[in-house]
Write a structure and sequence with these properties.
Blueprint lengths: L2 E7 L3 E6 L4 E6 L2 E4 L4 E4 L3 H18 L6 E4 L4 E5 L2 E12 L3 H6 L6 E11 L8 E2 L1 H6 L5 H24 L2 E13 L2 E4 L8 E5 L9 H4 L5 H12 L5
Antiparallel strand pairs: 1-2, 2-3, 3-7, 4-5, 6-7, 8-9, 8-11, 9-10, 11-12, 11-13
Length: 237
């Protein structure tokens, strides 16, 4: 597979075309940002850690029957993925109250949410990724009712798999966001899964082991990511 020109550069990853129109190269950078890009930093090893972490999680989801865009690792920082027609709607599941949910509703952090909540957000940096609902997504053509239903089903399936996986490693999966796209008519998970895009707490101490360490200036960001990986059995070079 030949890597070609850069197609897109996001906040922490770059996407490159290949000689096969159905596949792309996903490059994980060391860039880290928060608060809509207002806080930025380079964290050594972050690209390698998230690339390896994501590959491990994608393989677990694939084994559980979740269709993903991930094909295989290419090197320390890159993975081969399917080229999807992305749906501009983020799916968020919350198992424990934290972050924007607490600010929005005035609830305390750390409440177990039963049942887990499911929310939709429009993928639009300029508008701050506003919260939306199924009706808005359908009216404005961002997603069809059938697509939304499948995205919700898959998001909860991911939750079932990963909540237990992290719990077995002594961690709580607090919340996370997922993006989906269409590949040859099928709804496919088209996102990475790493401590950048979810919240993870130690199940005993509730110490934060995710990107909140960067947001809140707690330090030890990559060390925490690596500890999460080690608890899951991931080997980092």
């Amino acid at each position: 597979m030949e890597k070609r020109e850069e197609l897109y550069a996001g906040k922490a990853k770059s996407v490159f075309t290949t000689d096969d129109p159905d596949y792309l190269v996903l490059h994980f950078r060391d860039d880290t940002s928060a608060f809509d890009g207002k806080k930025k930093e380079q964290l050594a090893r972050k690209g390698q850690v998230n690339n390896r972490f994501n590959a491990f999680i994608m393989e677990k989801l694939k084994a559980a029957g979740v269709p993903t865009h991930f094909e295989r690792l290419l090197n320390d920082r890159e993975a081969l993925v399917k080229k999807l027609d992305m749906i501009p709607v983020e799916c968020v599941v919350r198992n424990i109250s934290a972050g924007s949910l607490c600010r929005r509703l005035g609830v305390e952090e750390g409440l177990t949410l039963t049942p887990s909540t499911f929310e939709l957000f429009l993928k639009n940096d300029a508008q701050g990724d506003p919260m939306i609902n199924e009706s808005l997504a359908e009216t404005f053509g961002w997603a069809t009712p059938e697509q939304l239903a499948q995205m919700k089903t898959l998001t909860y399936q991911v939750n079932d798999v990963l909540k237990q996986l992290f719990l077995d490693g002594g961690m709580l999966l607090v919340d996370y966001k997922l993006e989906f796209g269409v590949f040859k008519g099928e709804i496919v998970l088209g996102d990475e899964f790493s401590p950048d895009g979810c919240r993870l707490w130690d199940s005993e101490t509730r110490e934060k082991m995710d990107k909140d360490r960067f947001r809140q200036g707690l330090g030890g960001v990559i060390e925490a990511y690596e500890e999460v990986g080690r608890r899951l059995g991931i080997e980092f070079d």
